[in-house]
Every structure is written in structure tokens, then in C-alpha cells.
Amino acid sequence: MKAGSKFLNAVSAFALSASVVASGAGVVVLASAPKAEAAVIRNVQVHGAQRAGEEAVRSNITIQPGVAFSASDIDESVKRLYSTGYFSNVKISVSGSSLIVTVSENNLVNQVVFNGNRKIKDDKLLGVVQTQPLGPYNQAMVNADVERIREAYKAIGRSDVEITTQTANVGSGRVNIAFNITEGDRTKIADISFVGNHAYGDGRLKSVIATKETGPLSFLTRKDVYSEDKLRVDEDSLRQFYYNHGYPDFRVVSSNAVLDPATNKYTITFTVEEGAHYTFGDINVESSVEGVSGDDLKGLVETKAGAPYDARQIQKTMEAISKRVASQGYPFARVTPRGDRNMQTNTVGVSYMVDQGERAYVERIDIHGNTRTRDYVIRREFDFSEGDAFNQEMIARAKRRLEALGYFTSVNITTQQGSAPDRVVVVVNVEDQSTGSFGIGAGYSAGGDGFILEASVEEKNFLGRGQYVRVAVGGGLDDARTYTLSFTEPYFLGYRLAAGFDIFRNETSANDYYDYEEQGITLRVTAPITEDLATTFRYTYKTIKYSDDGAFGDDDTPYTSDDNVSNTYLDMIEHGSYTQSSISQTLTYNTLDSQTLPREGVYASFTHEFAGLGGDSEFYKLSGRARYFQTLSTEADLIGSLAIGAGHVMATGDNLNVFDQFTIGGRQIRGFENDGIGPRTKNHGDALGGTTYFNASAEMSMPMPAVPQDIGLRLAAFADAGTLYGNDVEKHGDTIEGAGMAWRASVGAGVMWASPFGNLRFDYAIPVVKEDYDKTQEFRFSMANQF
Length: 787
Hints:
The protein is an alpha+beta fold. It folds into 6 domains: about 5-105, Ubiquitin-like (UB roll), CATH 3.10.20.310; about 110-180, Ubiquitin-like (UB roll) (Roll); about 190-275, Ubiquitin-like (UB roll), CATH 3.10.20; about 280-355, membrane protein fhac (Ubiquitin-like (UB roll), Roll), CATH 3.10.20; about 365-430, Roll (Ubiquitin-like (UB roll)), CATH 3.10.20.310; about 435-785, Porin (Beta Barrel), CATH 2.40.160. About 15% of the residues lie in helices and about 45% in strands. The strands form 8 sheets. Strands 18-19-20-21-22-23-24-25-26-27-28-31-32-34-35-37 form a 16-stranded antiparallel barrel. It has a 5-stranded mixed sheet with strand order 2-1-4-5-3. The longest helix is centred in the middle third of the chain and has 17 residues, at about 310-325. The radius of gyration is 35 Å and the shape is globular.
């Protein structure tokens, strides 16, 4: 037989064995031989692809002229064509040396419209549905879009939304589709209760969970929206709360939500078992890794015998040991805590077991849910990348870092089996939240400048890049004006270095006889030393100008001391402009459990600064402050804090300038103006600042009585004390008062509110120890708001 005849017979036989017809109901094999020979075609003929085009069809099939194919290739090609969504029917057959592809096209979507929607705008809904203008019309996709819209409305508390669809043929194979929405009423939460809780009351537990009861401002917070996913998150929050406060046996028995159709409100009940309260027993570290001694790792242990059981301390210990062992050349080392429970003494001994672990590598990191934050912003918080050794403790560390950013409402990291037994896929699921805020700060001085106001706008995640931007403008009745622009890149040049700058300008007309202007720029970079310790280097250049404001006549007429101008300031006005160039370093230690409402931890900083790199200032300055938070009563949510601060400046030249010295007041000792205490000119009361200061503060806060805790209102009582003394300014004949070490003190109360508008605070302080020449300011108000 000739070769050509053999080829045609093979193709004919293959056509009978592999002819396939596809329809909307599926793929049907018309005939199939037990064994089908591979065949080769010379060309592909396409029929019916009027809008999609023949090339679009050819590009979506696996069969190519001159390449052998089989029945499985036809099946795969049919599936690919269907997956495009553009075709309602697909048929592939072989005729002679040609592959015949016959398709029936779906209509194209001309326009997508939404009717009846008020709570969710069109652009949001268009991002929810998959049916899009100029895309294929597919009824199954439309049905799925109806469910997607329903879920979007459930997320804002409108579970009874009704959705129908309409289509209109506009010719040329195009249709308009309309989603008709009846939004219905918003579901609410009437009551949240707990069963089985004895150690903590309902009010304390309500403050732990994210779901809140419906209140007067719930339409702003949206925290009274019920969803099963939120309920699961709340369960986990309760578990973590109890695990961190001495209850390792705690469990959520059930969480039920019952909807009352008559009121459209949910009643949510959490049934829990607290278990007994435990403290830590004996703590030990054991290692089976050759060359790694358990005794050498004991210094890294955070858990202490006799302290209340705290799962956070166990996790931190595991991370610290894992990091140390990995740095010694064992990247796969695994740290496993083993508990030894003693029910008679209610103690849990913990042994940290260090072993080699299984060798596994990170195949890839998959990120989902970040609609705003860029992928690389999330990836850089991991201490590993694709191809590196996998370590579970690094996952926990990355999760903590991502949560600390404040960019997300939730962070969940899981792992999946990779393409090989020693490959792991890390899956990161996040949910973006608002990171912009505007703030308003205000103060009032009864005998001084009256009201002082500052407004600011800041964004912690600028354009989803993780950059920080802040713009602030302030002013007062004394014509004072302040302007600030700040920018921070948290990963400068791809390293864990936070680099940025601050541009500032301050203007004021003080005491009605001179104008003061200060403007400059600060360049800074912050590098982490450990998870809790960081160092910041700064360079600051600024100009300071004192000038005649014309209050006592023409600008050409010089001031004299008879014009109520102190000689010191008179000399500064005559001098005009000054420049200051300085470098500084700050060490910061931060172990706070929350940056918004700390209940435990320490925040401390120490700064030393040198000025003299040119300019008119020559000094060396030391300053530091620390604040310690401790929960005094977990049940009552009573939080105490102690704060201390100190500073000293010494001249490295002849004298200090007024603006080189420290000025303290209301920011450290409430009840006084910002520059309200310290050395002053005796005849004119001008603040000169001091060379040395000390301050201390004690505060206690608690939820406001008779008000549900989840509203966020807290009462605070405080006592402040401090002193500012010493003076190394050239006096020019002025008499100075207040240069001695006289202490000031104040007591007061405040109201804090974690409101839908942001964190508000109102303070009223009464100076109980002060000097006659001090300037007081009894009332202060501050606000910061998320948008």
C-alpha cells in the first residue's frame, strides 16, 4: 500500500475513534475504539467564530498541524474553549487531513447595570461580579454573581437582600444585563451573652471580641454586623485571651446566633468552659541537636516559674530559641513545648524540646485578600523567601509583624503540601483595613493664649506601599502657626531600614513684642537591633529668626527695655537669624501589647544629641523617658502605668542659646502650658528654658461604670510631677527667676473614648504645687480618627 493511502486510512480510523461533540450539557464521545492511534493533521479549520475570531480559537486548542495528537488532546481542547466563556457549543472532528472546529458563540455583554442599590455603590458591585461589559454572557456566571452580591450585602448586615436579573437583547449578538436589588433592612445584634464564664464577666469578654451589640453609633462602626466568619474569629479571640491569662484548658463549647424575624435582630450566645487557673511550674530546655546545649538556651526563656500561665510567653520563647539555633547553622531545627500538668498544684511545667526537625523548603508564598496592600509589602515581613529552609517559628514571627503593621483587620497564615514531599507552600490570607486618619488636638489656657488647635492627616500605608505620610497644621489665638510634613519609607533600599524626613515650620507672635520663626528639615533612619529594640539616627538643620513685630512703633524704631522687652530677647531680636545643625541617636525599647490601648509592656527611649556641625548652637544633650503598663485587675480591666523622664544639656561652646535648652510643661505635667514652668526673666516673664529636667507620672484607667465596655469609654485618674532648672544662657542684664530645682505637681482626671471618630481624650488637671510665675492650662482635648 502506498504511504499516502496508509495515512488517509489512519486518519479515517482515528476520526471514527475520537470524534467528539460538545454541548452545554457536557462532552459526549460519539465513538471510541479500545486503542486509538496517534494521528497528524495538516490544517485546522474553524467555523462559527464570527466575533471571537479564528485565531482566538486556534490559540486555545492543544492540537497543532504536523504534531501527533490523540483523543485526550481533543478532550483538552474542548475544555479550553469552554473555559473561555465565549462559546455555548463546541464540536471537534477530523475530516481527511483537517481538524474541523465548529463553535456556537455566546452573546457578548454590552452593559452591566445595578438597580435599587444605595448602600453599595455601582463601582463596588462591578468589582464583585464576574460578568463584565464586553465579556461573554453566561447564565451560570450570572447566577454565581447573584450569590456574590448577596454575600457582599451580608457583609454589611443586610442578609434579607433580594436580587433578580433581567436581560435585553440589543442586537449584533450583544445583551444588556441588569441586577435588580431590593436591599431590605439591616440586621442588627440585640444581645451578646456568655454562659459558663466565672473568672471574667460578660462586659470584659465583650471587649475582647470584635462583634458588638447594636448601639446609637453602630451605623458608623458596622461592628454589629453578624457573620459566621466573624464568629469564628471571635471564638479564637476568646481562646487567646484565656490562654494568655492562665487558662490553658479553656474551650468554646458552642457559639450560636439566633435571628428574630420580627425585629431582624440576632441574639448571640457563647457557651464556654474556663477550666482551672494555672501558673508555670518547672521550666527546662532540652536539645537533641549535636553541638547545641539546652543549658545555653535557658537565657532565652520568657516563661518563669510561678508566673501565670501565658501562651504568648511560650510562643516568644519558641521563636527566640529557634532563631538562636538557626543562627548556629541548624535552619531546620524544631522547638516543641511539652507541658507537664500538675492538677493538685495547678501548675504547668514546660520543657522546650529542640530537635533537628524534618528538612523542608519553601516552594512559594501565596498571598490572598490584599485588595490594596502590595504583595511585596507583605512578603518583606517574612524572614525567608522561596527556596529557603522552612521554619514554623518564622511563620509565627511574620504573622505578628503583619498584625503589628496595622494594615489589616485579620492575618491568617497556613501551609500546604508543595510539589514534592520536602516542599511547603505558605498561604497568607489578609483583609485590608483603612489606614488613613485625621487628628485634631486642642488645649485651653485660662490666663494665657486661650484655645490652641492642631489638625493633621496621616496615612500609614500610602498607595498600598507601606509608606507613612503625615501633614499637620496648627494655630492659636496668639497668631501661632505650625506646619509639618513627614514621610517614612519602612524598607529603604530593600533593607529593614526605616528612612524618612520631616520638614517643619513654626511661627508665633509671643507677648505682643516679637515674632519668632523656626523652619528646617530632619533626615532620619531607623534600624532594628532585636524584635523589641531599635536605633534611630537623625540629622537636623534649622534656622531660627527673632524679629520686631511692630507692636511698639515703626520697625525702624529699635526696642528698648522700657518697651517691656527683656534684654535677653532684645539681643536676640537685634541678632536676627540663627542656624542650628545637629546629629542625634535614639535607642527605643518597645514591648507594648497594643499601640492604641496598652495593658502590659514597656516603652522606653534614650537620646543623645550633639550640635556644632556649623551654625550658632554648640551643645551636647541627653534625654530619656520610659513608661510601664500593667493590668492591675483583669476582671475590672483596670490598667496602671508609671512614667519617668529626664534630660540634661551642657554647652560645648561659650553659652547656650534660649532655644538650645529644654522647655517642658503640659506635655509632661498636665495642668501647665507647654512651656509653663522653669527659668524666666523676672521682669517680663519670658521663658528661657533650663539645662536639666525630671518628670514622673502615675495613671490608672478603667472602663466607665454603668456603660457597656464595648462602647469604649474609660475613666482615668493621674498625678504628674516634674522640675526644670538650671540656666546657661547669656542674660544681658536680665534677672532670672525659677533657676532653682523647684518641683511642680498636678492631679487630674480624664475621659478616654475609643469612638467611631477615633480615640478621643479629655483631661482636666489642677496644679497643686506651682510657682507664682508659672503659666497654667487646666483643660486639654485630643483626637485621632480613622477614615
